[in-house]
Amino acid sequence: MSVVGIDLGFLNCYIGVARSGGIETIANEYSDRCTPACISLGSKTRAIGNAAKSQIVTNVKNTLHGFKKLHGRAFEDPYIQAERAKLPYELQKMPNGSVGVKVPSFFTDAERRSVMAAAQIAGLNCLKLMNETTAVALAYGIYKQDLPALEEKPRNVVFVDMGHSAYQVSICAFNKGKLKVTSAQFEQLCAALLSRVEPPLRAAMDQAKLQREDIYSIEIVGGATRIPAVKEQISNFFCKEISTTLNADEAVARGCALQCAILSPAFKVREFSITDVVPYSITLRWKSSYEEGTGECEVFSKNHAAPFSKVITFHKKEPFDLEAYYTHPHEVPYPDSRIGRFTIQNVVPQHDGDNSKVKVKVRVNIHGLFSVANASVIEKQNIDGDHSDTPMDTESSSKNQGIQRSQAEQQSQADEETENAGTETKTASGDKQDHPNQPKAKAKVKSIDLPIQASLYRQLGQDLINCYIENEGKMMMQDKLEKERNDAKNAVEEYVYDFRDKLCGVFEKFITEEDSHKLTLMLEDTENWLYEDGEDQPKQVYMDKLQELRKFGQPIQERYMEHEERPKALNELGKKIQLLMKAVEAYKNKDEKYDHLDPAEMEKVEKYVSEAMNWLNSKMNAQNKLSLTQDPVVKVAEMLAKSKELDSFCNPIVYKPKPKVEPPNNGQAKANGEHNGPVNGQSGAETKPDSAKDNPQQTKPHGEMEVD
């Protein structure tokens, strides 16, 4: 299982992967860890990354770059219309009204959904869509061993990220094993105006309600932070030296890979909780039955903790719509503040005609996406005389009472989302409720799930996404086939150039002048064909053309290779024959080294070696009579095979080891010692073996006769 983190930048992309107990930024096919965010569309294939960037000049109208800012935007968006004039490629309107192509760190809901759809089309299982500054903070904090404990005052760190087209500032509070984002300000810059460096810094500090002395350190990331003037302005604002602990280019990808490893069951990572924020406040609006008005409620305020879920209670008699939108459109770097419309279906009055109590759960999930997660109706049934049933509370209401909003208790979701704890209850203007003064009644309650129809603005439908996935699969197959076709074409071109050079070089002695002239003409005709009729041919045509060329060129190449390798093979075979002949001669001369060998076997060896020598001499005599332009009589492979045959037949016989001679037994040794007597002045007692010591069982009583 691969666990990766992707930094989708405006200009470049980085990919971090969890492996070998750490995070590594991987290199692309060009051995470069930085991959340009660029795609070039050809007539039959696509180029991506470095290969696409090289075609910006040659294929300018079909080379896409800077498309990060197009995610989730409508075609009629004034920003898109202004950018159209600057882009060399053509933009088109998609079926859902968003922008497409023919051929800030805090994204809004539509932008996030666009990226999620792109990941799905690319076949990626996105575990979490992270804010860039959150990924940077994770990459910073998880390796810090000196963070304050949970009960101590947190360490505040400012992260300044200035890339190719975006500038963002975030302030994060760190404790051991915990990270909380407290606010962030995002601005898109079209030009490097240094006067705009300070305002986001000041706004971030104001929203965080911090003073300069509360800041522990300032970390800078992003390519543009290498500009000395930018560093100077940031340092002067905080009255501190800036820190470059993190890799300015790879910090986001590394942080994303860390988060992916934390979420993956395949990796064991130290515990580190992350509390992110909702960057823009979100409000729900609905049609109220009271005086035909509308009700609204801000469900998530700016910088609210995320992920988070809330449950809202409505009193309705019929299906109703909830419209979600960003509360303050001027704060959103996006012209349309609408998020989506959610229709709660199958709502009917209670049996007694009262409004039904509908509980709606809204949430911002782990990806930062807003949704109405589920809805249910609380159905009550009056039961007489049964006091064991659970009573249902009927809330009293007036013009200003009719909707209740409460935060859900913290719990672990099945979709790996963490809901923060809270017990806040807030009342907003809403619907008129029947029987406002009706007292509580004994009732049996039943919760029934209600279907929800979601209509998200500029959200790609699943049918369209499936169509795109299918098209992506077709394009990948087309890319593969086109690569194979180009490889086959390049193989023909390479063979033409390589063989033509060798005809005037190493192959010159191995082909007649007449054949060389014919083959040269054939190579020239093939080269001309490649740039004319053969410019765009199927793969099989190129393979057939290469086979035709090899039919004429292969014999020449083989003659050259045989000539180069023959001396070595001849020398090896000749040495083996000489060694075996010497062994046979030594055997005939009664050399004790071979006196244990079988005469019949040695006779076979002599005959086999003699035949091999005669075969080699006859072949080499015939070969020496041929010119270099003729095919060889004997090939190197035949010599190697003959050498192997000699080894397998003769070696087991000639190099058969002598049988081992068994040492004499103890009785013979004793007899030899008694008859030989003392040697070199030694006494008999010294030379006589101690039989009693060596063999206790043979010890005889004193006075008995010893018998050999």
From TrEMBL:
Biased composition (Basic and acidic residues): 381-390
Region described as Disordered: 381-446, 656-708
A GO MF term: ATP binding
Classification via Pfam families: HSP70
Transmembrane segments annotated in the record for this chain: none
Keyword Lyase: no
GO terms for cellular component: cytosol; nucleus
Keyword check for Nucleus: yes
Cited InterPro entries: ATPase_NBD (IPR043129), Heat_shock_70_CS (IPR018181), HSP70_C_sf (IPR029048), HSP70_peptide-bd_sf (IPR029047), Hsp_70_fam (IPR013126)
Subcellular localization(s) per the UniProt record: Cytoplasm; Nucleus
Keywords for this protein: ATP-binding, Cytoplasm, Nucleotide-binding, Nucleus, Phosphoprotein
Composition-biased stretches (Polar residues): 391-405
Chief place where the protein resides: cytoplasm
Assembly notes: Homodimer.
Similarity comment: family membership: Belongs to the heat shock protein 70 family.
Described purpose of this protein according to its UniProt entry: Possesses chaperone activity in vitro where it inhibits aggregation of citrate synthase.
UniProt name for this protein: Heat shock 70 kDa protein 4L
